[in-house]
Each structure stands twice: as structure tokens, then as C-alpha cells.
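Margin note from the TA: students keep mixing up input and output lines. Inputs are the sequences; the output is the structure of the whole complex. Example:
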Amino acid sequence: MSAEPNSAFRYISRKRRTKEDHRFLAGNGRYVADIALPRMLHVALVASPYPAAHILSIDASAALALPGVKAVVTGDELASGTDALASGLDIPKVRRYPLAVGTARYVGEWVAAVVAESRALAEDAAELVEVEYEPLPSVSDPEAALDPSSPPVHADHGSNLLYRRKFVWGPVDEDFAAAEHRIEFRARWNRNATVPIETFGVVASWDPTAQLLDVWASIQMPKFPDQLAKALRLPGNGVRVHFDVDVGGSYGVKRGIKHSVLAGYLARRLGRPVRLIEDRLENMRGGDAHGPDRIFDMAVAFDSSGIIRSLRIRALDDVGAHAGRAPFQLGKPIGAIVGPYRIASVEYEAISVTTNKTPQEAVRGFGQSPTNFALESAVDRVARHLGIDRIELRRRNLIRHDEFPYTIPSGSTYDSGDYHAVLDKALAAGGYEDLVRRRDAAREAGKIAGVGIACCLEPSGGNSAFEPLFNPKNETTTWMDSCSIKVDLYGGIVAMMGTSSSGQGHETLVSTVVGEVLGRDPETIRVVHSDSLSALPSNSPVGSRMAIMLGGAAAGAAKKLKATITAIGAHRLGVAPEAAEYRDGDVMLASDPGRRLTFDQIVEIAHRKFHELPPGLEPGLQSAHVMEVPTGGTLPTADGRVQMYPCYAFEAHVVYLEIDRITGKVAIGRYAVGHDCGTMINPDIVHGMTYGGIAHGIGAALYERFAYDGEGQLLSGSFMDYLIPSSHEVPDITIADHCTPSPLTSFGQKGSGEAGYLGAPAAIAGAVNDALAPLGLSLTELPMTPGVLGDLIAGAG
Amino acid sequence: MSQHEITFTVNGESQSATVAARLTLVDFLRDALRLTGTHAGCEHGVCGACSVLLDGVPVRSCLTLAVQADGSEIVTVEGLAPEPGTLGILQDSFWETHALQCGFCTSGMLIASHALLAANASPTEDEIREAIGGNLCRCTGYKQIVDAIALAAERLRGSNLPAKEAADDER
Ligand code: FES
Ligand code: FES
């Protein structure tokens, strides 16, 4: 698994300890719950017990009578003092506020907020709030929601349909007609999410003299400060979000905009700092952080040789009771809708509906992992249908190394890759031949055993092209990120980023990149998370983008700084900048390296000796770079073709597992993955995210589900029922690295924040189906829990 | 709400306090003592983020009441390092293998593995996985944590002290 360090680099791709780990290991992280402000008040929430109900009255008198209780705020009050939260689609009648206004739309929806001197008191008081409800008919199944006669979750909107569009890219009908074979099947991805160990939290404090709201939040959200200000009817510069809060895991979901609007409103109204930290139940039920809940109807057209000609995909997604950005999770996969395969035409019908369930939020991969699961299920089924080996079938369809850049029917161009090589590495790392023998021996011994294979892409670089694609009123074509650098009077380097981090190691990323470009030891470079008033624009660490975008911005800023240092040195040496050479901060004559200025001398000139600066140069030593997404900047075509993300990482998974015949429990005996994300800035970080992504994928495939009963009640609101894999369920994992640099990025890097998760559910589902095949069984629904598998196997007798 | 006087030792320092009967140990440590290195992840005893050593044994401070700590010796993550700014061998091994990402589960992982190494100088991979089996990590997939604990065990053995003392020595 050890990558050959790329010898072109001094710091990049090398084994280096991270900048962040030290403080966490000392117990010195600074998470939102660690922030305690003087006179701070605490919030507890009153939640709806009904999936749908009119709120007839709220009686807070008993709660308010408790000493120490400061306020009970309802949705009606909030709706008069704030604007509705932003929605991605053009659906003005689907309004969402932090608290239910008039109607509760899912079990757990916050109906009232209780503010008190302590959280315990607030919880006591919340129990005393009396809410009178009139239950309404509800809907919790996405197909039922699609039926026009279903009760609309938002009555004003008139139906549960939020979005429906059928894209046709290429001659789908002709390709289906001409193909020798066709199969159809349904794949079901049930609700799960990333469920970080830290719940969402926010602290807000209002300064009435400065007219400024200070916010600390465990946030990972693009345009969070802007949306917060807008909903609170404040100017953008009336909100200061502090990005130096350590976020205890997110993987997409930490977008507590409703929590933050609520806390901000309360802080202003009460004139005291307010803290809202979700407890686990508030998080699971009312935190609005569930993930995709999707039904795929797949049709595949292919030839006897195994060449896949065309796909028809109908994806019906249940976003829960409110929209937010969730419908866009049907849009992002358009950028890799054929996976790593040469498939000439595709029809994709994307349908988004509301139901009376907890709202959906962005989850690692933004809809890509469910899509990859459906695609890989299709490939396995084609192989089985034709009796062709699964790996051979993939080899026949994978895009070849010499075909890049490769444009897929939906308009995205894949930058680079060597899929066959990575698949081979994965098979070698997993010991594929041995696994097959082991499986066959296990079967001989009466066990249920299978091997799974999955190939998939990780689109990376986090553009937001799905916004204009799904909402023509939205003309967003940039999703920039930034970095600024300054060198102080004594040569200390500080780099600044404008977003918070949730474990991705951005301080390590920035210091490594800046160190590489400037030839300065990353150890000596300080990286700070600034705040939204002082930061340059950022779109936060979404869409596997930071290695590309923050890394690119840091490289851009460092290159500008390097040019400035070179210019100062050359001027002082009396030569043109082209005649000077920059080396590790010093500047020397290219022809006579003995004639040089040291870094310290140049810093001194920049800070003190204006008379020695080249004409036209600003004093001081600083730079900034705002980076546009590579390949960004264009709107979709009328037929819905667009370059979604710039870079495409590839992974190939190999897994061996056995299923207990009685309990249905799966034991994973071997897991290997071949991974190519171009140049790795820090291999330990990339590997860590990949291991973690696979663990998360194991959860999605086998254990995790936000299950609802027929009445719309959530059945898995705690860690007793929502099962997160532990060190017992996650096996030892082998990673085989491969590096095909991206031609579009500063060092050839691609994204890796979603690695592992994008292919693990598909690979495990493939292995389970391989194991079930001798019993004549198959299953294309996740999660494949012990209960589901045990019943299925028992049913087969 | 009844109030109780308790006396205890935290990270080697003896203290006393008056606490409400219903106050959990995790809230007491975090809010009253401002030892915020211990985290609350689930508050129902599953995730292990809140683990502390109570008389040498890892306990879930979310399921322990502050009054139960009366007369006992508590060690939190802040007490694992020999002195401020430094790290013990176990912590340093976590850094070396990058056994964390967001850091939220980390103090619990350190507590669980500290207790393991105090009892077992040469744990197998299975024993390591067993020891941290009650601590959930959503970031790492556990691999680099298992590597870190194995590395720490090796280093501690190399430090030529009996395992118990070496592990204790770290704090
Ligand atoms: S917070 Fe105590 S076990 Fe989760
Ligand atoms: S490091 Fe984030 S939960 Fe373990």
C-alpha cells in the first residue's frame, strides 16, 4: 500500500505528521460544545410526535413559570422575525423555517424552542410545553408520494413532486433497439446518513452596538454565512462566522442552517449568547440530516460480447419533508452517470418527492454512492446474464487509458485515469485467485460465501453545476475557493483559509502546498481558519474539492508570493527577475549563485525599506489567490449536458465475505481497494479517509438505516437501533495506490474525501449476491441487515 | 434537587465540589471543571467518546453520575500527557500513524487503549480490536488506530519498563 513518493516533490506525497492531530491528542481541540460565553443561555426543543398535524395551540405558561426559563419561542413568532430558509429548486411554496409554522410535517420536527439558564432546565421546561395537535393524513413511501392523490406534505405546493426531468443523452431508443440483450431490475438504497459522533451545535452572540452576530458552529456548508444573514434579515457583514471551530466529523451533513438561524434569532431577541447543541435524538430525528432514500429502475442494453450500449435509469428520491439542497443529490451523479464505462447513450429520469419524514441533507458523495451501487449491480447482472466473468466484463467496458480525456454522453469530460491498471492492482492486493479458492472451499464446507467486485468514480473538485441544471433561475457557474498568505516582519509565514474543517487535515494540506512552492519547511508555516468577515470567499469542503481547490488556491497564492520575493531580490541585485533564481526563499543570480539575498533580507526590505523595493510594488509581503474550479464557468446546454466536476478519481474494490446461515450476519474476511486519486498531498490523510469511507460504506451496505414504521414513526433514533460499524465489523483493509496525475490541477491531485464510500456498498452488495447465487437468491436492496439476510436464506429452505 | 458534596482526584489533583444528584460525570468534567477534552457523542452509553478512567478502569462518563465519582481517582485525556505541550508514548503513536481525523472520538480511544496497554503489554490485533470495540469512530475505519496501539505497545516494551508502570508513566 505504500506509494512511491513522487520524487518531483520535497514535501508533497511524503510521509508527514499532520498539523492538526497534536491538539486533538492532547484533548485540546476546540469544538463548538467547548465554547462557553459569559451569561450563555441554552436551548431544548419541543418535537412533534406526529408525522403530519396542524398545530392548534401552544401553551408555554407552565414552562415559563419554572425559575431560570427565559423564553419559549414558536414557529409563528420565528416566521414573523425571519425569512424562510433557502431552497435549491425554484419551489417558492415549499417553505421551511427552523420551527414548524402552523403545520408539523414529520416526527421529530421542532415545534417550539425553550431557552433557559441550563440545558437541563430547558429540557425540564420543554416537557411542560403543551401543544395541541390535529393529526393529518401523512405519506412516508416515495412511490405513494408520487401518486397525485397522496396528501401533499406542503399543501400550498399542491403535490409531493418537487422535481422531475427526463434527460436523454444520445440515441437511447436506437441503441436499445439494436442491442442483442436487455435486462431490467430495481435497486433500492434505503435511508442512512453519515451520522458523525459529534452532533450539530451552534453558539450565537449578538452585539447590539456593533449590530453584529457572532456565530460558532460545527458547520460544513457552502454559503453558510450568507444564508444565515439573509434568513435573519441582516446584511452579510452583520454576521461573523468563526471558522476556527473544530468540527467533530461531518462527511457532508453538518449543515445546521435551521439550528443557526434559530440560535441567532434567540440571541438577538434575548440579548444574551445562546447555545444549541443537539442531543442524539434531536440529531437523528430532528437534525434534518438524513441521506438519500432512492429507488432505481434500471434498464441495460448490451451485446453478447458483454459490451454495454445504453442505459435507462429512473431514480426516484425521497427528500423527506423539506427540500433544501437535497434534490441536487440527484443532479451531481449526472457527472459520472455511466461510471467508469464506455456507454454511448443514457436516459436518466430524476424525480424528487416530499414525504412526512426527516429532511435529507448532503451525504458524502452527494448521491454518487447510491448511483454507483445501481450501476455496479447492473454490470454484475449483465455478467451473470451472459455467463461472462464479472472482471472480464468490466475490463471490456472500462474506458481505456489511451482514451482520456474522455467525454461521457451527459457532457462531462473525465480528465485522466488508468482503470485497467488500478483494477489489476486491487485484484493482486486482495489476492483474488485465493479468494475465489477460499470461497469455493467454504461453499464445499456448506458455508454461504461470496466475492464482490466494484469499480467506480469519485468526481472531485466540487463545482456546483447541478444548480443551474436543476434550476434555470440559478446561474451559478463558479464555486471558488481561496487562500491568502502573509509573511511577518521576522519571516514567519501565515496562510489563511476561509472555512472550517471536520477532520480533512486542511492545515496540513495548506502548509504542505505552501511549503512545497516556497521551499520552506511546512512545520514552520502556521495555517489559520479565519472568520467570514476577514476571509476571502470559500465554498467549504464539499464535493471532494479541497485538495484541488484549497490546495490550488494555496499554490496560487504561494506562487504569487514567490514571484514577489524574486522581484525584490532581483531588483536589489540589480538584475531583471528572469536573471534571478529563487531557492527556498533566497534569491540569487542564476549565473552566479554566490551573489544572493537571503529570505530574511528580502523580508526586511519588504517590511521596512520601501526605498529598496522595485517601483510599483506594495510594501509588506503578502499574496492572495481566489481560484475558479478548473473546467467551471459554463452553463448547461438545453439538453442538460454540463461539465459537472473537473477531476475523476477511480477505485476498484475486492471483498470476500461469509454469511451466517442462521443469523444472517455477514463477516468480511478480506477487503482490498485499488485507488487512484492522482498525486496524494499527504498519503496518511488520503489513506485514512479511504479506510473511513469503506467503514462507512460497510455500514450503509449492512447495518445502517433510518427505518420508519407504516405510521411515519422513526424506529432508529439512537445508536441502539441505528448501528454504526465498530472495530469488530470493519476488517483490516488493504489499499493499493496508483497515481494518474490530473492535468487540470496544481500538482496532479484529485479529490479523495469520498473515497471508499463510493464503492464499498456496491462491492459488498456484489459479494452478498455472489454468496446468495448458489441458493438461487438475489437481493438488490440496502442495507442487507442480518434480519433481512437471515429471513431470505431461511425462506429459501 | 438534592445537592451533594464530593471529593475526588482529577489528573492527580484532589478537589471537592457540590453537585446536583442528577448531574452526569461528563457534564461535571466539561462544564464545571472545564476539562473539555472528554466528549459527549451519544449520552446513552454506546459511542464511548465520553470514556474516562475511574480508579484505572475505563467508564462511560455519560452513564456515570458525578456523585459516583466521590472518593475516586479520575483520569481524563488531559491527564495522559507527561506535561503540557508534550504527548505520552501512546498519544505520540496515534500521531505517527494518523489514527484520527476529526478527533472527536480520540480521547475515548486513548482511554480505552491506555487501559488495554496497562493490562497487556503485547496485545494481538484481535485484543486491540476488542479493547476499542466499544468506541465508535466514524472517520478512520479503525485501521490506523489499531496500528497506533500496536506501535505504542512495541514502543512501551522497548522502553524497558514493566507494562503497567510504563503506561502509568505516560501521564
Ligand atoms: S457519550 Fe457516553 S457513550 Fe456516547
Ligand atoms: S476521528 Fe472522527 S470520529 Fe474518530
